[in-house]
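Batch job 17 of 40 flagged for manual review because the log was empty.
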Amino acid sequence: MITTWILLPGAGVGVGLALLAREVWPAPPDLHAALRRLEPRARALSTPTAPPARATPTERLVALVREIRAVRIPERDLALIGQTPTEHIRRKLFAGAAGFLLPMILTAAAGLLGIALPFTLPLLLSVLLAVGLWLVPNQEVRTRAAGARVEFRHATTAYLDLVALERAGDAGPSEALERAALVGDGWAFARIQDALERARARGVPPWASLKDLAADLGLPELADVADIVELAGTEGAAVYGTLRSRAASLRTELLATDKDSANTDSERLVVPGTVLVLLMVLFIALPAMARIVTTS
């Protein structure tokens, strides 16, 4: 007679494969997110998170999780790395479900091998592993966002110099921002180009759109560019020297940050290097010491 414990591993594997296939299968583009990017910032932030009328069960579950106040979504970090909150919550749900099912499956496999385990142990492990894997996507997003911010800061220094050169060539403030953005081809320059295109479509000054982008992504350096160029656009100030000096100071800050990061990495390598040297010494000296002990 087939017992329930025999069916559980197969059912768990089947559910896991189905969820994995659903995540890997290419999804249609999110037109709602694309349209929200073209709307003003205030209206985009007030957009409700309710699922569409024809939402799938997974989308409705994601929308339900987003309504829970205890679940904090790193909106800025997700916007910076180009990931939607829906995708982030979906990954968290998948990771938490996998962490909850894994001890159950291993316990069922152990039961088939004749190893009896108390029911409370796998349940406790399932809860702990589910909570741990639920938090893993947040840490991954923070790590990716930190690297993306450093990369964006490097792009901002180049953008400052380009805007300064355009201003030195008698380009207007708006024209200088747009021409300088067209020079770069990286993802950071692409985000700046999108912000300037939204400003043109909305009929607002380009520095206002850059300020919105800086606030949404948590990039004060980009807001500095907008503030400096705004002085030229509203008061007619000469900002060439200000732009160049801000770019130089930002490079100095980035260099200091890189040095601190390099020093931290060097300190982390001290312990593994010391352990490796000790292991080599033991590996070389142990046969000799064993030979001395046996001969004496």
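Reviewer: the log was empty due to a logging misconfiguration, but the result itself is present. The chain has two domains: 4-144, 149-263. Unflagging and moving on to job 18.
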